[in-house]
Amino acid sequence: MRSLIHVLFAGLVFTGAACKKETEKKADKVEEAKEDLNEAKKDVVEAKKDVVDENKDVQEAKVDLAKARAELEAAIKERAAKIETKIAELEKKGDAKSKEAAAKLRAEKNELVAKWNGAADRTEANWDEFKKDLSTRWDALEKSVDDAL
Question: Which string of DSSP letters, residue by residue, matches 21-85?
Fold first, then answer.
C-alpha cells in the first residue's frame, strides 16, 4: 500500500511538473505573440510615415509640374504671337503662293495650339517627351514661316 501511495505521489509530482512546463510554454508563446504584435505595430507606424513622406513628394511633384506647365504655356503664347505676326506679313504679300503658304502655316500653328490645350491630360511620366515633341514642332513651324518669308 505504501508503494502504491509513493507511486501515486510520484505521479502527481511528475504530472504537476509537466503541467507547469506546459503552462510555461504557453506563457512563452503568448509573450512571443506580444513581441510580434509590438513589432507589427512599429512596422505600421513606419509604413504610415513612409506614406506621409511619399504623399508630400507627390504634392511637390504636382506643384513642380504645374509650374513647368505655366512656364511652357507662357512661352508657347509668346511664340504663337510672333509666328502669327510673321504669317500675317506673309499674307500681306498678296500673291496666291504666299496666301496658300500662310493658310497652311496658320493651320499648323493652330494644330500646335490645340495640342498644347490638351496638355492638361499629360502626366509627369510623359511630360518631358510631350514638351520635347511640342518644342521640336514649334521650332520646325518657326523655320517654315521664316523660310516662307
Answer: HHHHHHHHHHHHHHHHHHHHHHHHHHHHHHHHHHHHHHHHHHHHHHHHHHHHHHHHHHHHHHHHH
- Write the CB contacts of 66 (distance below 8 Å, at least 6 apart in sequence): none
From residue 35, give the alpha-carbon distance in Å to each of 2, 39, 40, 44, 59: 49, 6, 9, 14, 36
Instruction: Give which of 139, 137, 145 is closest to 111, Cα–Cα.
Output: 137
| pTM value surpassing 0.90 | no
Is-contact 124 99, C-beta < 8 A?
A: no
User: CB–CB of 130/69 below 8 Å?
Assistant: no
One-letter amino acid of 64 = D
**Tens digit of each residue's pLDDT (9 = 90 or more) over 99-109:** 999 999 999 99
Name residues whose C-beta falls within 8 Å of residue 76's C-beta, 6 or more positions apart in sequence: 112, 113, 116, 134, 138
CB-CB contact of 102 with 144 (8 Å): no
